[in-house]
Design goal:
Layout (H helix, E strand, L loop, with lengths): L6 H17 L15 H5 L2 E5 L6 H14 L3 E4 L4 H7 L6 E6 L8 H14 L3 E5 L2 H5 L3 H17 L3 E5 L7 H14 L3 E3 L11 H11 L4 E5 L5 H10 L3 E4 L2 H11 L1
Length: 259
């Protein structure tokens, strides 16, 4: 359900985000020791991802075969590839996730809603949407909220989860915190660090901040530049409950070596 919010409420959310960021001192907090996970345990965290512009049907088949072999959490693909992957994964327990508004987030909200609806009607069970980063930078919080809430609404109406990508490398800590608060109010199921196409990827510090803001009722997905076992478990130690990676198979090989 998309709520109507007053200007005063939005101003309070922005103030709260600024307050959280000002008080945030990750270096002064106890950092959990990275867990020692087996390859099988780690696989359940990973969205096995292929978002390249030149992804072919044969590459998608390999992605789905690898996901089946290793029991990854999902495969994550661009929306036009959802139908192919749903067919390839028929008879397995794996879900297909779809990006929406990817990678810039700078299109009409109505276009994002239509893309999300088509993705979930085609069989996607999770949606990774990009919020309008430029509107976050402009502190246009009402428009940010309405954009996220509209996509969340169509996802939930179709029994799909919605993850919201912040593109954290472009944001201040105050903007990250405020965006997370708005995502929670909009009903998002996860907040997510990055597209992997921006100037930077996931950091443990950003994951820890996002976890601090959203609490333990929402998921945090770390994505962008996660290529090794050490990268993955560091994100999990910081609070990530899902890892987005195109290097999932190599990460699991690293896990076997680490163990």
């Amino acid at each position: 359900m998309i709520r109507e919010h007053s200007d005063v409420w939005l101003a309070r959310i922005a103030w709260r985000g600024t307050e959280i960021a000002a008080a945030w001192r990750p270096e002064g907090r106890d950092i959990a020791k990275p867990p020692q996970l087996t390859a099988q345990e780690l696989a359940g965290y990973i969205d096995h991802t292929l978002l390249k512009a030149d992804a072919t049907p044969a590459m998608l088949d390999i992605l789905c075969a690898e996901a089946t072999e290793h029991s990854f959490a999902t495969v994550c693909v661009n929306s036009s590839h959802v139908a192919h992957c749903v067919k390839a994964l028929k008879g397995t327990d794996l879900f297909v996730g779809s990006t929406v508004g990817f990678p810039l987030g700078a299109m009409f909200t109505e276009a994002k809603v239509l893309e999300a609806r088509l993705a979930v009607e085609t069989g996607a069970r999770e949606v990774d949407m990009v919020l309008p980063v430029g509107l976050v930078k402009a502190n246009a919080w009402r428009r940010v909220y309405e954009d996220v809430a509209a996509v969340v609404d169509v996802c939930h109406r179709n029994d799909a989860l919605c993850k919201v990508i912040l593109e954290t490398s472009l944001l201040t800590d105050a903007e990250k915190a405020t965006a997370c608060l708005l995502c929670v109010d909009a009903g998002a199921d996860f907040v997510k660090t990055a597209t992997g196409f921006g100037p930077g990827g996931a950091t443990a510090a950003d994951v820890a901040l996002m976890r601090h803001v959203v609490g333990h009722t929402k998921g945090v997905k770390a994505a962008g530049g996660i290529r090794t076992y050490d990268d993955a478990v560091a994100m999990i130690a910081a609070g990530a409950t899902r890892i987005g990676a195109s290097s999932g198979v190599q990460i699991l090989r690293d896990a076997s070596t680490e163990r």
